[in-house]
Design goal:
Length: 506
């Protein structure tokens, strides 16, 4: 009776998960391959602030307008209760949110979908824009005039003039340069000062603000570059090194001024950018088809979540697959390990350290911690104080290892802090108990099994195609659940036991 109940439950789970998967794939056309279409990016800007009670609130924010190297597919403004208007000002597009009354913490969202496209914004033959020299103080104006004469003598054209300007701004021990930078040597300040110097020489230049797109980009730092017009097109330069050429993955967000332009009636204004890589064409067609049919399958999908939450679920949804691997290794193969969740958490830590570095770090920390645990055994400590002491030793070892590897120029050691310290502590404790009760061989087998399980789980959980499938089709986890439930009743021989009982078969 119990077996029949479990069988029916598993069949229902497989049927539900498989049916929804086939419907989204075959009927709606959701792509099952991660590289089934052109790569598109969902970029999100999140503006947070505290509204001043009883005062009107206005926030002016730049949004992309023909970013070079990209095309804008779609955009969404999320601002409940706010009035919204957009306008083009000085070649930049701005959004203005306004509300008569607001209280407490407020959040505004802007989301855009862009994809790499042929750059048409910097085509040859365009006229250079008019140049307006900035206002310098008398002392700064004298320094700029002298610099312009020196730079002109050491340059041959506009491009070399701009590069020479940026290189001279990098002279930190020069009092004249420090006067211009006013103590701020950031890329943004260099780009602003360089644009002013070039404008004095009647050369059109402007700071450009944006960020580099990443597959899993949360809280992307806002970067600054310098654009200089050479009479035919805009040239992009790194304000620190002067290197020409804009990276392919750099998305220009605003020009001339930072994205947040001005605001009224707000305090503690904060801006965060996030980006996630998605597929386009097949997915867009699937959404359109679902909307035409009134289907809710994609309207309430994970793609409707904010980008930062999407990044979290791309990782979290692979954890059941890692757990299934642990089940198969323990119940079918017969691999011994320290529990179920410890190998999965170690596999998640391997995402940052990479597999080989993670194995070396795990082995080293556990070995040193095991030695400390055996020493504490002589002190006759109670369980909880002993665990707390081992945890303290593990944290100190991780800190010393990070400092040591950093001094030696080994960057992998800096990722050691990402290891789950409590899991390492419990692993050391369980390994020491197993060492005492069953001997060194049994303890080493469990440690090796845990490391093997974590490595296999890491390889599956970081596979791009696997991440794409479970994110686009989370219903497949119902099938994973059915397999896991079915394995809960498996009582047959394990593969490692076949060799143990081989003599009985003869």
């Amino acid at each position: 009776m119990r077996n029949r109940h479990l069988l029916i439950l598993c069949l229902l789970l497989v049927t539900a998960g498989g049916s929804l998967f086939l419907y989204k794939w075959l009927d709606l056309g959701v792509p099952i391959k991660a590289d089934n279409a052109i790569g598109a990016w969902t970029v999100e800007a999140r503006i947070r602030f505290s509204a001043q009670s009883g005062k009107p609130v206005k926030v002016r924010f730049a949004v992309p307008l023909r970013p070079p190297g990209f095309a804008l597919l779609d955009e969404t403004f999320v601002s409940s209760g706010y009035g919204l208007s957009t306008a083009v000002q000085d070649g930049d597009r701005e959004a203005l949110w306004a509300i008569r009354r607001a209280r407490g913490e407020q959040e505004l969202y802007y989301q855009a979908v862009v994809y790499p496209a042929r750059d048409t914004a910097q085509s040859t033959g365009s006229r250079p824009p008019s140049v307006e020299p900035p206002q310098f103080s008398d002392a700064q104006a004298a320094v700029v005039a002298s610099l312009v004469e020196q730079i002109r003598a050491h340059s041959a054209d506009i491009a070399t003039f701009a590069v020479e300007t940026l290189q001279r701004l990098g002279a930190r021990d020069n009092s004249d340069i420090n006067l211009l930078l006013t103590g701020d040597d950031s890329p943004q300040r260099r780009a602003e000062v360089a644009a002013g110097i070039l404008a004095t020489a009647n050369i059109a230049a402007r700071p450009v603000y944006g960020f580099q797109l990443q597959k899993e980009g949360r809280r992307l730092p806002l970067l600054t570059r310098l654009e200089v017009h050479n009479g035919e097109r805009w040239l992009s330069l790194d304000p620190l090194s002067g290197a020409q050429g804009q990276p392919d993955d750099f998305l220009v967000w605003s020009r001339g001024k930072p994205p947040l332009r001005d605001s009224d009636g707000v305090r503690h204004l904060r801006l965060e950018f996030s980006a996630a890589e998605n597929t386009y064409e097949a997915l867009a067609a699937a959404r359109q088809r679902a909307a035409e049919r009134g289907s809710l399958a994609l309207q309430f999908s994970l793609l409707s979540l904010p980008v930062q939450m999407q990044m979290v679920y791309r990782v979290v949804l692979t954890m059941p697959l890692g757990a299934l691997i642990i089940v198969l290794l323990r119940n079918v193969v017969g691999i011994k390990a320290f529990g179920t969740f410890a190998p999965i958490l170690i596999a998640l830590a391997f995402r940052e350290t990479r597999l080989l570095n993670g194995i070396l770090l795990f082995t080293g920390i556990v070995a040193l911690g095991l030695g400390a645990r055996f020493y504490m055994e002589r002190l006759k400590l109670l369980l909880v104080p002993r665990l707390a002491s081992v945890l303290t030793v593990v944290v100190l070892m991780m800190a010393m290892l990070s400092v040591l590897t950093y001094q030696l120029g080994i960057g992998a050691g800096l990722s050691v802090a990402l290891f789950p310290m409590v899991i390492l502590t419990m692993t050391i404790e369980r390994m020491s108990i197993g060492w005492e009760e069953a001997g060194p061989r049994e303890a080493l087998q469990q440690a090796g099994g845990s490391l093997l399980a974590a490595s296999l789980a890491y390889l599956v959980m970081t596979e791009r195609q696997v991440q794409h499938l479970v994110f686009m089709f989370p219903e497949l986890l119902l099938i994973v659940l059915a397999i896991t439930l079915a394995m809960g009743r498996y009582t047959g021989y394990r593969l490692t036991e076949l060799r143990r009982f081989k003599a009985l078969a003869g």
